[in-house]
Specification:
Blueprint: E1 4-10, E2 17-18, E3 24-37, E4 43-53, H1 54-63, E5 69-82, E6 88-101, H2 105-114
Parallel strand pairs: 4-6
Antiparallel strand pairs: 1-3, 1-5, 2-3, 3-4, 5-6
Length: 156
């Protein structure tokens, strides 16, 4: 089975391109945070190359910008080629099968501003009936005093 699911932020605005046979595609990369800190205590990120084709490429280029959060599902594709000096080079890409808008329009605009880019609008309206507020006073772990850590293997 070859399946990849990633959640990350675009490192640049995707650009729509076309093959010789007029098939739309785009190549972009996303920064995916690691779940553990590095030796200096800071969380590091991996930069993953993604390729999208046809309508998905057009949609990604239309609605996403640098810094926007995107959820992707795809497969790993490897390849090799000889560079101009005759050296063998290897490629590693995630070929996009599905993607999801992870942020609301408001969140996307805020993240785009923090990356100093212009937000790309889209027709998503956040439901007004949803209460996204968090009631800190009802924290079930507040009486413990210290932070609570749940191991990732808890359900295994």
């Amino acid at each position: 089975m070859n399946k990849v699911v990633l959640l990350g932020r675009l490192t640049a605005k995707p650009e729509l391109r076309y093959t010789g046979s007029n098939t739309a595609f785009t190549r972009f990369s996303i920064a995916v945070n690691r779940t553990f800190p590095g030796p200096d205590g800071k969380r590091e990120a991996d930069f993953i190359n993604v390729v999208a084709w046809r309508k998905q490429a057009e949609t990604v280029c239309k609605y996403f910008d640098k810094g926007n959060l995107i959820g992707i599902e795809g497969r790993i594709q490897t390849g090799s080629y000889d560079d101009k000096d005759g050296n063998k080079r290897y490629s590693f890409d995630v070929v996009l099968d599905n993607f999801e808008f992870v942020e609301s329009k408001k969140s996307q605009e805020a993240s785009a501003e923090s990356y100093n880019v212009n937000p790309t609008p889209y027709d998503y309206q956040e439901p007004s009936s949803v209460d996204n507020s968090v009631n800190v006073e009802s924290d079930p772990f507040s009486e413990f005093g210290d932070s609570v850590s749940i191991d990732d293997n808890f359900l295994d």
